[in-house]
Design a protein that fits this description.
By secondary structure, the chain is α/β, with parallel strands linked by helices. It is 14% helix and 13% strand.
Length: 71
């Protein structure tokens, strides 16, 4: 099961991440440890703006249905 703790242990070389509909992904998730992350798919999760801000080089985002973001 994907969770904030599991995601915190991902390799820093990851470029694309899909956590869509993962109920264990919360607004506490930070992505600063993934400096190469360019694409994030996080539909229907509880991520927050703080999660997105922590992904410094993000270029593509799919966050439809993220209630904490208002989309």
């Amino acid at each position: 099961t994907l969770s904030d703790a599991v995601l915190a242990a991902l390799s820093p070389t990851m470029r694309e991440l899909d956590v869509s509909s993962c109920r264990n992904v919360t607004g506490a998730l930070r992505l600063g440890h993934l400096p190469r992350l360019r694409k994030l798919h996080c539909r229907d999760t509880a991520i927050t703006a703080a999660t997105l801000v922590s992904a410094k080089r993000l270029r593509e985002l799919d966050c439809f249905g993220c209630s904490a973001l208002g989309v």
